[in-house]
DNA sequence: CTGAAAGCGCTTACAG
DNA sequence: CTGAAAGCGCTTACAG
């Protein structure tokens, strides 16, 4: 039951520990025959490296900066809270986490925050990417300065970010359409979409996926023009109020942005809670309540704790040049009904 | 940026490393005033222990045995495969994993396998718990011998297992009913349930949750008597064939056990694929195919990789007496439609 | 191209 | 009740 260690490999290959280490880490300047001897010994005695010991010896520390939008977006608050609790836990794993708030929907502010990242201090930076002009270039600069950029929740495809942590938003839109379509069937009539901002890639993608499925599979349903409510509760409430007044026969709404409280308020004002089918995003407290009392029919969610942990794991793996498990890091589109809410 | 270590604490408190370690690990036999000095120093200089270094020094190794049912149950195959790949990865984290197969639905075989666990060698044992006579007592015995028992997928509530890794199966049944109910609405007619075995707690619970919601919220739907198909494809096919012949007007089926291939075969034979609404469990290859071609409407899933990793993390935490993140370990009821299949 | 020795941050006998 | 020293399994200067 004794562990096989580098010492055993060194003894078996009749070389020093330093040489074993060189081979193990693929470093330059080892004679081919020596490499051969060592790899042979490793195979023979069945050695696998202890990662934790290696990290300890390497004195490796990771520093990660999260740039998160400020404001009253409940989902972003959840992300921030998860990042804070991850910070407490990850210090034990030689990882320091710092959270900086930036204004939402604000390309220039994001660019400024990216440029302000102290490249000598941070391993990586995680941010919700507004797809605004020049953000791509700011990402280029951060890469050049040796910091690993990770986009979170909303991506900029074609940029040089190292990885995107978030759901497939086109698929999310399609899923919303499938649910809403089945829930209103066999009625025919109007369906509305409420978005946050068409500056955010995730919103654009969700809309695209939703309209795709609606057109293909529910041609009997009429799609009203998209409302853009900037993820703001007051704006959402007033826009939806107008919507419900103008279209009293509305069958369903896909709320693909935030600001669920404003939506609920408008529905209740018109006494339409539970009458109009609603599919929305993100399992916030408001969403839970609306699911429970029947105001909402389904919520699509992207698990905040999973996303935060995934970003951290990916930065560490990328920094170490080690691999990570795709299956573990893929963020799923979670569907919640009233009945699987507490699971 | 230098890390604060035990050395710093020792210097600050003017005690030895050994004493710092005693306080850190809450060991007996330290003077109260000394404890005070050390905790004070820890607070003052802001020390947090490096877990990896601690594990290295402790020479801690974990050995975990998975007892998984043999046979052609596709979901169990997925679990086994995940356990195997976890085995490869976790050796790097001082964790050895061994997999043993046992016959399915076989209480005595499970008991025998539990009793055969070498208590001096294993930290914990993970198993799918048939709720058969005397299994509870076998779990008691394993606890007494100092091995941590974890139930996976199907639980025995009230037993002394240390933890259950799996979904809330009553909630899963309720969710299935909500989906199926909405999918068939506003039609009225008959709905059937196909189960595996009423010896398995998870099947019993799913059925319970399903019937609850059906009776409360869809009184216009008639529930046919439950079919028990032992998770076997041939049996399922023949039972469902009879079902479809006797009830040509059937609206929907909740398949709460395994054996989806048999179900699909019967539906296709009767040319009813896509006509009868189907909600089933576990995202196997058969399930994916059936979702894609419209034979199934929704699949409830419990993520196999997550369940395997969770069981491992929980055993390590329990063995170390450290805490784990409830939120990370809760297994969710994932709902899949055709549209969020690849996410 | 290779090796001896010190060190990462903790824990563990052992001695007192 | 407390401390000095060795060790966990790896990596890193430094010397040759």
In short:
Chain A contains 14 helices and 12 strands. With 343 residues, chain A is α/β, with parallel strands linked by helices. Chain A binds a DNA duplex (16 and 16 nucleotides) through helix 2 and helix 4.
Structural class of chain A: alpha/beta
Q: Outline the low-pLDDT stretches of chain A.
A: none
User: How much of the residues of chain A is beta strand, in percent?
Assistant: 15-25%
CATH superfamily assignment of the largest domain in chain A? Response regulator
Q: Largest interface by residue count? A: A-B, 50 and 50 residues
Order of helices and strands of chain A: HHHHEHEHEHEEHEHEEHEHEHEHHE
Task: Figure out the total of helices of chain A.
Answer: 14
Distance between the termini of chain A: 40 Å
Assign the CATH architecture of the largest domain in chain A: 3-Layer(aba) Sandwich
Helix content of chain A: 40-55%
Whole-number total of structural domains of chain A:
3
The main sheet of chain A comes to: 7 strands, mixed
Instruction: Tell me which oligomeric state these chains represent.
Output: homodimer
Q: What's the level 1 CATH class of the largest domain in chain A?
A: Alpha Beta
CATH topology of the largest domain in chain A: Rossmann fold
Radius of gyration of chain A: 25 Å
Number of strands of chain A: 12
What characteristic shape of chain A results from the CA principal axes?
A: elongated
| Mean pLDDT score of chain A | 93
Structure in words:
In chain A, the strands form 2 sheets. In chain A, strands 6, 7, 8, 9, 10, 11 and 12 form a 7-stranded mixed beta sheet that branches. The first copy, chain A, has a 5-stranded parallel beta sheet with strand order 2-1-3-4-5, sandwiched between helices. Chain A has 3 domains: 6-49, 434 Repressor (Amino-terminal Domain) (Orthogonal Bundle); 62-167 and 304-331, 3-Layer(aba) Sandwich (Rossmann fold); 169-301, Response regulator (Rossmann fold). Chain A has helices at residues 6-13, 17-24, 32-45, 51-58, 74-90, 107-115, 135-144, 169-184, 201-217, 233-246, 260-269, 285-292, 304-320, 326-329; strands spanning 62-69, 95-102, 124-127, 148-152, 163-165, 190-195, 222-223, 227-228, 252-255, 277-281, 298-301, 334-336. Chain A contains 14 helices and 12 strands. Chain A is α/β, with parallel strands linked by helices. In chain A, helix 5 (74-90) crosses helix 13 and helix 6 (107-115) runs parallel beside helix 7 (135-144). Chain A is elongated. Chains A and B meet through helix 4, helix 8 and strand 12 of A and helix 4, helix 8 and strand 12 of B. Chain A binds a DNA duplex (16 and 16 nucleotides) through helix 2 and helix 4.
């Amino acid at each position: 039951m004794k562990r096989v260690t580098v010492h055993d490999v060194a003894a078996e290959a009749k070389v020093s520990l330093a040489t074993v280490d060189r081979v193990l880490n693929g470093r330059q300047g080892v004679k081919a025959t020596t490499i051969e001897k060592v790899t042979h010994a490793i195979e023979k005695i069945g050695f696998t490296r202890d990662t934790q010991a290696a990290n300890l010896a390497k004195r490796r520390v990771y520093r990660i900066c999260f740039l998160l939008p400020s404001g009253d977006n409940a989902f972003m608050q959840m992300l921030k809270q998860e990042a804070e609790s991850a910070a407490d836990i990850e210090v034990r794993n030689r990882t320091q986490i710092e959270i900086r708030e930036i204004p939402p929907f604000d390309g220039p502010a994001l660019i400024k925050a990216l440029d302000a990242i102290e490249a000598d201090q941070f391993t990586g930076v995680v941010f919700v990417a507004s797809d605004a002009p020049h953000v791509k270039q700011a990402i280029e600069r951060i890469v050049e300065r040796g910091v690993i950029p990770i986009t979170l929740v909303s991506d900029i495809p074609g940029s040089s970010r190292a990885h995107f942590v978030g759901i497939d938003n086109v698929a999310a839109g399609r899923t919303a359409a499938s649910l809403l379509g089945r829930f209103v069937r066999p009625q025919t009539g109007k369906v509305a979409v409420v978005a946050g901002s068409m500056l955010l890639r995730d919103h654009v993608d969700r809309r695209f996926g939703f309209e795709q499925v609606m057109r293909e599979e529910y041609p009997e349903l009429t799609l009203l023009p998209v409302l853009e409510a900037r993820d703001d509760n007051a704006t959402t409430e007033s826009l939806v109020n107008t919507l419900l007044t103008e279209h009293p026969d509305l069958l369903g709404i896909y709320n693909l942005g935030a600001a669920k409280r404003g939506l609920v308020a408008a529905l209740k004002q018109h006494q339409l809670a539970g009458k109009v089918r609603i599919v929305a995003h993100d399992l916030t407290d408001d969403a839970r309540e609306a699911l429970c009392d029947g105001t909402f029919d389904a919520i699509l969610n992207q698990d905040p704790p999973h996303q935060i942990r995934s970003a951290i794991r990916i930065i560490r793996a990328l920094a170490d040049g080690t691999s990570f498990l795709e299956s573990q890091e893929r963020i799923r589109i979670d569907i919640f009904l009233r009945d699987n809410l507490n699971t």
